[in-house]
Amino acid sequence: MDNSHKNRIFSSIVVFIIFSFASQHVAQASQQGGSCTKAGATATAKVSGKTVSLLCKKIATKLKWVQVNEPVSTTLTGSTTVLIAGSTTVPVSAPTSKCAINKICAVGDIGPGGGVVFYVSDITIDLVSGISAGGKYLEAAPSDTSSLSAWCNDTTNLITLTGSAFSSAIGSGALNTLIMTTGSANGATPACTSGAGFDAANYSNAGLSDWFLPSKDELNLMYTNLKKHNPSLGNFSEIAYWSSSEVGATCKVGRMCSNFVWAQVFATGGQGETGKGTRSLQRTSGNNARAIRAFG
């Protein structure tokens, strides 16, 4: 036997040993719920005496060996578990579970009220007795709470509530809504017995009824963080939405300031002073509205 033939035999033995070791390592790693290095790679392993096929798959942020054709089960909390060969389970939490249950949320998560989280604050905001317990997170209702409605049934008078004032700022939507639904206008109390603010304050979802109409700046956050998100979140229409912010004493020359509130066109993102009973741009009947709530 010449040396070249011996070398070929030796090389084959080395390859076989390396392959056997690698296969054993893959099977052992998979049985322990181990990691893999290349998505889409395949291997086999013994599970309860049976040979099963494995697939290298991304689970959360890591590559793991997953048993092929193993069904994925869903728990009541919204999390899922994926079975790894060797009866090891790797939980994969849906983005909704931590937010709805533990109040640890990020923009885009589903909140405890069934809406989409669109803002995370460093401090508690929108804390207003009688309407909102406040919180660090704001979630938008899963669907519009008013469609082509007036802002309020009183469309011409300033609304007042002793010790309170309308604001456009983030964190003022709850107080604005309280003014609308408990304040006075032209001698009538409450000022609003129908319209966008009334609908928001009386909205309930997922057993929660602490909703309110967003302020001008909160409404803009909904547009920026949800409507413009890629992909778009919140199922918003290409129409204008009401804020709870009355324009007040400063408005464009020639207008009755008491007649106007801030609205935002979700097709373009433009905000403008809008008559309380009219639709932005078209000046026909009403805009849409989407209630929000604070929590956490």
Short description:
This protein is an alpha+beta fold and 296 residues long.
What would you say this structure looks like, in words?
Residues 271-296 are annotated as: Disordered. Residues 277-288 have a biased composition (Polar residues). With 296 residues, the protein is an alpha+beta fold. The chain has 2 domains: 3-93, no CATH class; 98-295, no CATH class. Helix content is 22%, strand content 29%. The chain has 5 helices and 14 strands. The protein has helices spanning 3-31, 95-102, 173-182, 196-201, 216-227; strands at 42-47, 50-59, 62-67, 73-74, 80-84, 88-92, 116-128, 132-140, 146-149, 240-246, 260-265, 271-275, 287-289, 292-295. It has a 3-stranded antiparallel beta sheet, covered by helices on one side. The chain is elongated, with a radius of gyration of 29 Å.
Poorly predicted runs: 14-32, 70-96, 280-284
Average pLDDT, all residues: 77
Number of helices: 5
H/E element string?
A: HEEEEEEHEEEHHHEEEEE
Number of domains: 2
Count the strands? 14
β-strand percent reads 25-35%
Radius of gyration: 29 Å
